[in-house]
Amino acid sequence: MSDAQQPDPHDDHASLIRTPKQLIVVVVASFVLPVIIIILLVNFVAFGGKKGAGSDGMSEEAVARRLQPVGTVELRDVSTPAAARTGEQVYQAQCAACHATGAANAPKLGDAAAWAPRVATGFEALLASVLNGKGAMPKQSGGDTTDHELARAVVYVANQGGAKFAEPAAPAAAASAAASAPK
Ligand code: HEC
What we know:
Layout lengths: L8 H6 L5 H28 L1 H4 L7 H8 L19 H13 L12 H8 L3 H10 L14 H14 L10 H10 L3
Bound molecules: heme C.
């Protein structure tokens, strides 16, 4: 009976799993493999870092930025002259809009004729005009510009217009100078 040697054709179609051992292997693999794949995917997306996932969205800095409350308060040490902006910097940021062009009849930077009568009123008077506003110039104090920085800006624009005002002393320097002054 040569047919007996032939494998039963029905067995081929029945199943690839023929032994209990194979069954266990397949069952375990069908649970474990998806879990491993999910873990790998999560790792790739979340911790892929700059090189891996092509995004630094999960970098510590990016996360911290997203967690920030709306708006931040920047603390500047106004008592150290290094932290204060120079008169020219303040001028560029806050005054040039009018004083570079002469908009609203503002005396132009460097126009000695326009500045001479104003400079003659003295630094304190000019500073008061800037702090409180004058004519078409709104008051420049407030915001994140300190009065000391505004004073430096006044010295800058006035000196460009021919004045010879000295750089105003920083608040802390002025205070310590007063404290150490001979009595
Ligand atoms: C919105 C336009 C505008 C801006 C911004 C502005 N100014 Fe003026 N400024 C004027 C005008 C206009 C005058 C003339 C006011 C007058 O005499 O009626 C003036 C006058 C002055 C004077 C002369 C004041 C006086 O007593 O005669 C000084 C000093 C001065 N500005 C400094 C500054 C400084 C420093 C800044 C920036 C911190 C600044 N200005 C920003 C328009 C401006």
